[in-house]
Amino acid sequence: MKILLLTTCIYNESNLFDLNRLISSIKLNVNPEIEVVHYILFQNNMNPNLANLSTSCNYYNQINSFIDGIVSLSKARNILIKNVFENENLNDFDYIGFPDDDCWYTDDFWKVFSEVSTSNSVDLFYTKFGSEPVKFERSLNSHSTLCLINNASSNTAIYHINIFKQLKFFDESLGVGTKNNGGEDTDFAVRALLISKNCYYHDDVIVGHRDPLPEFRYRYFKGTFYVLKKYGLANRSIFPFFVRKLLVGIVFFVFNKIGVSDFRYEND
Length: 268
Prior knowledge:
Blueprint: E1 2-10, H1 13-27, E2 35-43, E3 60-67, H2 73-87, E4 95-97, E5 104-105, H3 109-120, E6 124-130, H4 145-151, E7 157-160, H5 161-167, H6 184-195, E8 199-208, H7 221-232, H8 239-254
Parallel strand pairs: 1-2, 1-4, 2-3, 6-8
Antiparallel strand pairs: 4-7, 5-8, 6-7
Helix pairs in contact: 6-7, 7-8
């Protein structure tokens, strides 16, 4: 199996430490049956020696690119996607993922993923993340639309390359660094859901990442609300989750966490 991973990293010592943890976790997973090509975009690069940074090894090929300044997360990923379209034959790959620089994979993650995805002809795989991930062990598929909306993210979702070919790019009006601050992962996952035949949800924490802070969920309401509104008003299966999000927003509004403008989409 050949995996394509795309990661963006804003250059600083802390982020480099996290990135090296991610890279190390990937290297522990590769072997003659699991090959990874890893595109990394370094933003705000202030270190000229960073251009020489590469940790490629057998079955792990790291490809670095650099930009001055910082762009939104969705725009940064699209820069990487454009690089992939220009330099790779996507038919050589089986799956693609977009791990953040501060996540990591458990031992044998990609080996078990290969077994699960092959035996179930998976178009879209997703799971949970947390600071204390457990070993990835095969389990029953627990997929539902609610589980996808609650859990699919850049760290936890993996897309079959044929699904990715249809999705292509992230919506650059969404995500951290935009006026809508969030929703880009949900948008990408919902678009994949609507064209996928086989979705697979592993209901356990098998990807490492700092734990989410529930008290700050309101910060990402705006982008996600727009996504669920857009698809919910056009698709009966998504509509209940738009209504649910609307009710959550009303609660946030009542407790002065968000304002009226957070119910409105803004185009950058």
